[in-house]
Amino acid sequence: MSTTETLFRPFSHKGLELKNRIVMAPMTRGMAPEGLPGAANAEYYRRRAEGEVGLILSEGTVIDRPASRNLPGIPFFHGAALEGWKQVIDTVHAAGGKMGPQIWHTGSTRAGEWEPEAPVESPSGLVGPGEPRGNTMTEADIEATIAAFGKAAGDAKRLGFDVAELHGAHGYLIDQFFWSGTNLRDDAWGGATIAERSRFAVEAVRAARAAVGPDFPLILRLSQWKQQDYTARLAATPQEMEQWLAPLVEAGVDIIHASQRRFWEPEFPEIDGEEGLNFAGWAKKITGQPTISVGSVGLSGEFLAAFGGQASEATPLDKLVRRMENEEFDLIAVGRALLSDADWVAKVRAGASDQLRGFNAADLAELV
Ligand SMILES: Cc1cc2nc3c(=O)[nH]c(=O)nc-3n(C[C@H](O)[C@H](O)[C@H](O)COP(=O)(O)O)c2cc1C
Q1: Tens digits of residue pLDDT in 75-96
Q2: Helix, strand, coil percentages, rounded to 5, for the chain
Q3: Is residue 150 within 8 Å of residue 156, measured between CB atoms?
Q4: Which of 303, 307, 310, 340 to mutate to test the pocket of ligand 1 (most atoms within 8 A of CB)?
Q5: Selection from 179, 214, 210, 213 nearest residue 197 by Cα
Q6: 172 is catalytic
Q7: pTM, whole model, 2 decimals?
Q8: CA 61, CA 165: separation in Å to the nearest integer?
Q9: Number of helices and strands (H, E) in the chain?
Q10: How far is the CA of 186 from the centre of ligand 1 (A)?
Q11: Buried b vs exposed e over 282-312: b needs ≥16 C-beta within 10 Å?
């Protein structure tokens, strides 16, 4: 039996002081009427702060572009919605929590039948390889979008959030620039290498950094996999990973949130074996920056199956504890276990493993 003490060491980086290593993963709930977070959303996050989550990352919340969201209940992070977000962060702080918004643009992805009022936009008017959808972004669109990412990060700081995360993963807009399957541009925003296709992300990070100043911590969420293709990879070798990540760190990323569906899967098993470093482990080794890992912590099934209604049972944390003890990564994000149980962290700290409930897909329907 492993002890989970290692998860409860404090974490400190660039003024971000956390009481433990557990991060609430960003999870879209689609429950902000008119895109405005209200009291119910604030209370949902308050329960996680009271439940001892070290750092709460908000659900993806979108920048000021005409078609930046793909579901009507996704909250805006601009305009009138900012008042609601101010209530959220004040409520979380009053409960002793720390929090950052996840700043997002859903690109050309679809999350159902709903269509935004304006046409969706993406680097090459594709949602996947060979799959046209929406507009190809003009130079002016790209510049306005980068500015909107910067503005949102600046607003996060101004409202009193502790950190801001840019969503560069999972096949959404920033990732559509990274991915050769959706970025066919032959101008300065595309190219044959991951370094060239990273320029949009680099500029978005630069804009965010310029807006928040040198001392406010910025997180960037990245993934190799895409919702359009789970097997896609942006970096097939550590060298390519360095070409991808180093310019982003140089642009101002403090913490890399390396998204996997299962945290124990090795990133380059051909190099360090089946028990080798995961994505967050390699990102930390390559950049020297702190990293967040994620993926099926404490659960038997992975998260995309959850949307199909699959429940997950609670599973032991030994594998996670071993990797944290080895300092492979610095923080661990927990998604569904915290969606279903606001007290998950407190229960883990108390050693009450028999009370861990797992994930119940019915909890997706309300803010429990
Ligand atoms: C309901 C739901 C909504 C999600 N929404 C987002 C999101 O807005 N942004 C994001 O980066 N990831 C999102 N994810 C992915 C989670 O952040 C996390 O990476 C994933 O659930 C794996 O963690 P888990 O296995 O602990 O649930 C979502 C996952 C779920 C279950």
Answers
A1: 999 999 999 999 999 999 999 9
A2: 35, 15, 45
A3: no
A4: 303
A5: 179
A6: yes
A7: 0.98
A8: 10
A9: 13, 14
A10: 33
A11: bbbbbbebbbbbbbbbbbebbbeebeeeebb
